[in-house]
Amino acid sequence: MPLHIILRRSLAPHLSISGARTSLRIPQARFYSPEYLRSLKARRIPWTITKEDLRKPEAELIEVVRSGIWDDPSGESRNMVDKRARHDAQQEAKRRKIENGEEVRAPVYATQFSQEDIESEQRRPKKKVAVLLGYSGTGYKGMQLSETEKTIEGELFAAFVAAGAISKANATDPKKSSLVRCARTDKGVHAAGNIVSLKLIVEDEDIIQKINEKLSSQIRVWDILVTNKSFSSYQLCDSRIYEYLIPTHCFLPPHPSTYLGKKLVEYAEKEGDMEGYKARQEEVASYWEETDEKYVRPILANTPEDIRKLVEKVLHLNDEDRSAQDDMFQTQDKPASEETTEQPSTEEKPAAAENDEAEEARRRKVFETVKAIKAAYLQAKRAYRIPAQRLARVQEALDKYVGTNNFFNYTIQKTHADPSSKRHIKSFKMAEQPIIINGTEWLSLKVHGQSFMMHQIRKMVAMAAMVVRCGCDPQRIVETYGANKIAIPKAPGLGLLLERPVFDSYNRKTHETGKDPIDFDKHADTINEFKQREIYDRIFREEEETHAFSAFFGHLDHYSQEEFLYVTSGGIPAARLVSVPANGTEEKKSQREALAEVEGAASEDEGAPPNGGEEGG
Predict the structure, then answer these.
(1) CA distances from 409 to 69, 137, 316, 428, 592 (A)
(2) In a 10 Å sphere around its CB, with 0-12 CB exposed, 13-18 middle and 19+ buried, how is residue 106 labelled?
């Protein structure tokens, strides 16, 4: 085929022809400034300090040291990839291959059989069933099927085929088995109980055992129940119960030296709310002062005076440092042309070899000091035990979600006017007592709702935590149901699990149909053992290794723009508001960048939302 015809066909979807003129119409995409992308790329390596950093003006050096103390402990990148655009590109590439007659690679979940094997297989009857299962989402790209990624449904479908529950003729296409999930879960999110409905061959009495033998230990089938032919696990589900595990140190206030910590005080004074702000932070008012005295001062006691003074300025350990830091925050975003700092001459030569050695020794000492302080703060957070008064504030915030409200701010690609943005929360309760695992105190939060939109639960948890830790009036949560679009980040996915879906309406009718009710309680002992081993232990272990929660709230505290200042006494007007087009498909770039900055790897799962953005957790 001539090259010009190939190019014409490949560009056809993007060509606009008017008279004799042909123009190329590029689909609207999400672009980020080169400066922003470079800043993200710079964060891909763990923090260090260079000799050049040591020669910087004091204000800039303070910022370098501050980032070393508070940045992501794992040193991982906080870059964001536009997954929706990538998804669209993948689908477009697949469509072009089909049109051009090229070979399309089979989905990763498909099992290929020869035509001879398919024709020789004995045909057996299928029945509509509900498959009760649980899984640990660690290492999986979510629940829902993906043609290219490892997912829970993908492994489950392959196991059905391997166990003989799906015929060889249907081994490449789940649609032929009418597979429907009750609730989707994002990348890394777990489920103690979930359900898929589909048509299976269930003649074998030991079919559950056969399926489990083909699955990894992270995925277990609890039961397979024969249902009526019209059963849909998605449509007939009354409600869902999710659990979120969060370390209690997430409810500590931002450190006074952070951008958010400073803005909380600034807006409280500006709005005449200082008395109310202090009352809402009463039980943690002295936490950082006591922590710095107990954990940081001993480190600085054996540190050279110049480095000690530098760190004290970074952490506001002396009152006289505060006003200087105020000035720095106000000027840190000025263009380079406005800087008045005299730059060293490029003609200057190194003084002497011994000066280089001294400079290297100072660099190493600064690096070691920062590393020690970072470890000390992590140790202090692990040792934190939340007081009863703070727990009461957490429950007060969670109570604001109960009822029917407009949650468009708690998901993606929806507007305030969209009727589907309204959701009903039956209850949102925390456990009466926290639990201590490996020295860290954790709190269990359980939310029961009719249905949830993509990322809704993680954003609800993040907002509640922000309200409590920032000494914000809990009424601010109610204000988020209004028409103003604000940037609410989603808390780390590792703490979320689907406890179970509820089928009360269906179960009430089973005595009439002669079918078994959907009941996870029959398998409670097995499920609890699995949940402890494969879910809880993984959550605790992953947090101990990655410090995901510390990193998330650390980046939130240091994001030095207005997007998250709605938790200050200035309220929603203090934040940088965004306008959303009627179709709800685009967001203001600065808001996307803000969310990417604080969410980091947690934002990876924002692909094209299935089911209209439903059931994301």
Answers:
(1) 32, 26, 35, 18, 13
(2) exposed
How many domains does the chain fold into? 4
Is 310 part of any domain? yes
Summarize pLDDT for 545-595 with one digit per residue, the tens: 999 999 999 999 999 889 999 999 999 999 977 555 555 554 555 677 778
Q: Answer for the pair 228, 544: CB distance below 8 angstroms, yes or no.
A: no
Tell me the CA end-to-end span of the chain in Å, nearest whole number: 49
> Looking at the structure, do residues 546 and 433 belong to the same domain, yes or no?
yes
Cα gap 376→511, rounded to integer Å: 60
In 349-420, beta strands by DSSP E? 403-406
Residue 443: which CATH number?
Answer: 3.30.70.660
Q: Measure the CA angle with vertex 109, ends 502 and 205; round to 5°.
A: 60
- Residue of 528, 507, 527, 451 lying closest to 225 (CA atoms): 507
Virtual torsion, Cα 185, 186, 190, 194, nearest 10 deg? 10
Same domain, 171 and 194: yes
User: How many Å is the maximal CA-CA distance in the chain?
Assistant: 93
Catalytic residue among 72, 186, 273, 557: 186
Nearest-angstrom CA–CA distance, 255 and 599? 19
Amino acid at 320: E
Q: How far is CA 167 from the centre of its chain?
A: 38
Average pLDDT over residues 439-448: 97
Predicted confidence at residue 615, as pLDDT, reads 60
Give residue-wise pLDDT tens across range 158-213.
999 999 999 999 999 999 999 999 998 988 899 999 999 999 999 999 999 999 99
- Domain that residue 10 falls in: 3-30+83-99
519 is catalytic: no
For 287-296, 325-334, 476-485, which range has the lowest pLDDT when averaged over its residues?
325-334
Task: Answer for the pair 135, 532: CB distance below 8 angstroms, yes or no.
Answer: no
> Quick one: 393 and 250 in the same domain?
yes
Residues 405 and 361 in one domain: no
- Round to whole Å and give the CA distance between 215 and 493: 23
**Backbone φ, ψ for residue 521 (5° rounding):** -60, -25
In a domain, 339, yes or no: no
Q: Does residue 110 form part of some domain?
A: no
Query: pLDDT digits over 373-406, tens only?
Result: 999 999 999 999 999 999 999 999 999 999 999 9
Percent over 70 (pLDDT), the chain: 76
Distance CA 121, CA 415 (A): 51
Residue 157 belongs to a domain with what CATH number? 3.30.70.580
Lowest mean pLDDT among 98-107, 220-229, 529-538, 557-566: 98-107
Are 300 and 309 spatial neighbours (Cβ–Cβ below 8 Å)? Answer: no
Radius of gyration of the chain, Cα coordinates, nearest whole angstrom: 28
Check: pTM over 0.85? Answer yes or no: no
**What are the backbone dihedrals phi and psi of residue 198, each rounded to the nearest 5 degrees, phi first?**
-170, 175
Cα(416)–Cα(422) distance, integer angstroms: 9
